[in-house]
Amino acid sequence: MKLHLAEHVFEDLKTIYCYIATDTPERANKTVRYLYGQVIAIEHTPYIGRIVPEYNIKMVRALIRKNYHIVYKINEEDDMIHGLAIVHSSRLLSNALRVE
């Protein structure tokens, strides 16, 4: 499957970096690199994430890494994985993301 990342994913990574970097830029860099690596790995194992209970849609999944939910949608018809967002675990996914 091919991976397509929504612009929100890059915005989320930038926001995460800026937030952590106010205290420790080195940790911010490591965290963002780690999360991005996890996003890319989804391309090889798309079903590794759990079904998101807030949506209860089989193809909307979240991979939980550190304190973040990496949310993506699998589209088997066009053999694509759509990266939707990276959301801190303290936030409700239903408030942070619209899924159709």
TrEMBL record:
Keywords: Toxin-antitoxin system. Pfam families: ParE_toxin (PF05016). InterPro entries: RelE/ParE_toxin, RelE/ParE_toxin_dom_sf. This is Uncharacterized protein.
